[in-house]
């Protein structure tokens, strides 16, 4: 089991990376409030200073997470096998393809090895570029090979520094989005500071470096910044075209680097659809965004050798349905309140029906079943019937796919982020409801004009988009903890925008009958600065302590296992075991696997369930037959799974297998009435007794405190 322990040698490495810009760059912004009309020179100066602050904060964040990673693992001091083991579960699988490309005799041979891969899944040749989102590893490996840096930088450092560098892009994009929404770069500064001080809930890049979301989310943030700029009302045609191009590039890169891109963009498309229906966004720009999403995804589909999961995505079906429905209902935005509400209900139902029909038709034509486990999981998660499906229960029992823990809100509140976010969200939500009602009713009554002026902030398309975006992704985060990083980063943007927005403070002061232009400007800048000072004084000492804490990677049992495999098994040996461990086996030893953690394939899911019978109640002959059917030479059993205590009864892997096999679960507790006792004991426990019925099929060849490796007999 991998652990982190305190370093035995107190080595005074460069632990503290000072970030003085968080405080020193606050005071100069106090000069921003009196912006004179037509002050072109001042605007240039403000943009220059704001840009420098953005880049500085981005670079500081990059250095910050890189330092934390080094201090946590002592990465520069540990052996290569330990570095590779530190890339846990699917992270190790993705990094293995980068390593494979680096070690290939040529770029062409490396690409050929990925397109015709027979080591990731035994007795089967698969196309890695079609199955997985690993173009970033391919690009990075080619870049490393052609750049003259091999003598100065190890491949692993080139890889991790690129990911940490993307964090700079991420923070800059969040900064710019907040700046665009509020009109002042002080808002961007506050958003970046919140992102850093809430790091536990905004990113996990320092300990899951190769994870797909760490590649994709910076591009998603860039896309949101570009959409925010696009939704401004004063753009020239040339500016609009360049912005659309930026959105397309960011959307394409986001889609290329993460397999869950289609689900995130579906939520984004829903946000656009809601706002378009309520007449809060320009229809022409929304249409362009639908088209960009479809074209970006289709381009990725081509690069991934026409991956059927992309073609059968709900996003493409939904966007096409919206465009068709809009063509059918041309007068959707005309008429009185009741007339428009009726048309709107029909429009929503039409889009929903078309989406389901188109999606069903595409999946029928393509015989697509790759994503069925996701819908089974969602069905069970939201209470649409209990399930014994092994794959669905595997997700349901993982903490990452559970509800967002309540302690998340206490952490976010300690930086004032959640309090301010909640206040701004409530204010703009109420105002948005009023404006939506006014848009639908088409009322131009004189008595409403004053109210409309007071709620002008919600009429801004960029603010309206940001509001619906944060609400929908908030719902996603609340339902699935793993997706919180999409919400919390935008929470920083949304809260800082609200705190620094002239329109928001103007609205509040008018409601309180305290509005004056001077008072608005004073509050707009003084409260964010006070908030920044509070964050700095409260969290700066903690950040310094965190940067000075030195620990090291420690997992001797896994290191021993990997070294034994490399030294005592042939290069062609096939290994079976848990998905998480086998990803490390592939990375560290290059041996062939029976299964792996990239779960978006039906055949692989069925194969994994069969391999996992090593932890079920099955006879040795049955288990041997299953393993040999996949060409297995060695099987690795883990005590941490066989005697698992991390999950409660009903969620342990052995329990999921028992239920799926129709067997009664171990331990005290209730069982469903139709479950029956198994005729055989649990395989992973019984094999250790070296009974003749087991030794005729399996021979123990390696053992330590955590792992047991058995060699399979070759007889049929």
UniProtKB/TrEMBL annotation:
GO terms for cellular component: nuclear inner membrane. The chain crosses the membrane at residues 41-66, 179-197, 217-235, 242-258, 264-281, 312-329, 341-362, 416-441, 462-481, 487-509, 521-540. Its main location: membrane. GO terms for molecular function: mannosyltransferase activity. InterPro entries: Dpy-19/Dpy-19-like, Dpy19L3. Keywords: Glycosyltransferase, Membrane, Transferase, Transmembrane, Transmembrane helix. Residues 1-10 have a biased composition (Basic residues). It is found in: Membrane. It is a multi-pass membrane protein. Residues 1-34 are annotated as: Disordered. Belongs to the dpy-19 family. This is D19L3 mannosyltransferase. It comes from Erithacus rubecula (European robin). The gene is Dpy19l3.
């Amino acid at each position: 089991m991998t652990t982190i322990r305190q370093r035995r040698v107190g080595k005074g490495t460069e632990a503290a990376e000072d970030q003085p810009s968080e405080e020193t760059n606050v005071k100069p912004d106090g000069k921003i409030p009196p912006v004179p009309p037509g002050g072109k020179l001042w605007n240039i100066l403000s943009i220059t200073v704001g840009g420098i602050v953005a880049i500085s904060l981005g670079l500081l964040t990059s250095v910050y997470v890189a330092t934390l990673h080094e201090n946590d693992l002592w990465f520069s001091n540990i052996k290569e096998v330990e570095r590779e083991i530190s890339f846990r579960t699917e992270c190790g699988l993705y990094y293995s393809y980068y390593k494979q490309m680096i070690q290939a005799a040529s770029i062409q041979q490396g690409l050929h090895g990925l397109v015709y891969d027979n080591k990731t899944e035994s007795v089967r040749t698969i196309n890695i570029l079609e199955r997985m989102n690993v173009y970033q590893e391919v690009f990075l490996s080619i870049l490393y090979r052609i750049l003259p840096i091999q003598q100065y930088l190890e491949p692993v450092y080139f890889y991790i520094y690129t990911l940490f560098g993307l964090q700079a892009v991420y923070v800059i994009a969040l900064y710019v989005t907040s700046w665009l929404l509020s009109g002042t770069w002080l808002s961007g500064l506050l958003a970046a500071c919140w992102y850093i001080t809430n790091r536990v809930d905004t990113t996990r890049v320092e300990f899951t470096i190769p994870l797909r979301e760490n590649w994709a989310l910076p591009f998603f943030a860039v896309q949101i910044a570009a959409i925010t700029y696009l939704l401004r009302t004063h753009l020239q045609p040339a500016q609009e075209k360049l912005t659309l191009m930026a959105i397309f590039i960011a959307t394409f890169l986001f889609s290329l680097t993460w397999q869950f891109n289609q689900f995130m963009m579906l939520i984004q498309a829903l946000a656009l659809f809601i706002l378009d229906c309520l007449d809060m966004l320009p229809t022409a720009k929304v249409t362009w965004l639908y088209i960009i999403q479809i074209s970006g995804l289709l381009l990725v589909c081509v690069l991934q050798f026409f991956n059927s999961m992309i073609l059968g995505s709900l996003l493409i079906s939904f966007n096409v349905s919206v465009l068709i429905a809009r063509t059918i209902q041309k007068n959707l935005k005309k008429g009185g309140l009741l007339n428009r509400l009726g048309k709107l209900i029909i429009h929503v139902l039409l889009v929903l029906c078309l989406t389901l029909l188109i999606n069903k038709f595409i999946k029928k034509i393509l015989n697509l079943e790759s994503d069925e486990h996701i819908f089974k999981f969602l069905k069970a998660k939201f209470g649409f019937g209990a399930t014994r499906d092994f794959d669905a229960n595997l997700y349901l029992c993982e903490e990452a796919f559970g509800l967002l823990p309540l302690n998340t809100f206490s952490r976010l509140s300690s930086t004032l982020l959640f309090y301010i976010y909640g206040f701004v969200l409530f204010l703009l939500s109420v105002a948005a409801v009023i404006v939506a009602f006014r848009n639908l009713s088409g009322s131009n009554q004189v008595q409403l004009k004053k109210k409309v002026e007071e709620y002008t902030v919600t009429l801004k398309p960029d603010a309206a988009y940001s509001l619906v975006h944060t609400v929908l992704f908030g719902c996603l985060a609340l339902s699935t903890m793993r997706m919180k990083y999409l919400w919390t980063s935008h929470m920083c943007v949304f809260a800082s925008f609200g705190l620094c927005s002239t329109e928001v403070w103007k609205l509040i002061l008018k409601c309180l009958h305290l509005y004056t232009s001077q008072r608005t400007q004073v509050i707009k800048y003084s409260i964010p600065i006070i908030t920044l000072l509070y964050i700095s004084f409260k969290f700066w000492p903690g950040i310094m302590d965190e940067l000075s804490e030195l620990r090291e990677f420690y997992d001797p049992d896994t290191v021993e296992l990997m070294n034994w495999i490399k030294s005592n098994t042939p290069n062609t040996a096939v290994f079976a075991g848990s998905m998480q461990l086998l990803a490390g086996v592939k990375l560290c030893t290059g041996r062939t696997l029976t299964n792996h953690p990239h779960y978006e394939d039906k055949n692989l899911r069925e194969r994994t369930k069969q391999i996992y019978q090593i932890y079920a109640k099955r006879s040795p002959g049955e288990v041997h037959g299953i393993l040999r059917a996949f060409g297995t030479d060695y099987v690795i059993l883990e005590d941490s799974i066989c005697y698992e205590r991390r999950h409660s009864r009903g969620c342990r892997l052995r329990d999921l297998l028992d239920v799926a096999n129709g067997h009664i679960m171990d331990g005290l507790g209730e069982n469903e009435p139709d479950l029956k006792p198994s005729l055989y004991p649990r395989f992973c426990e019984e094999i250790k007794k070296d009974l003749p019925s087991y030794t005729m099929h399996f021979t123990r060849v390696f053992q330590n405190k955590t792992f047991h490796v058995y060699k399979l007999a070759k007889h049929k």
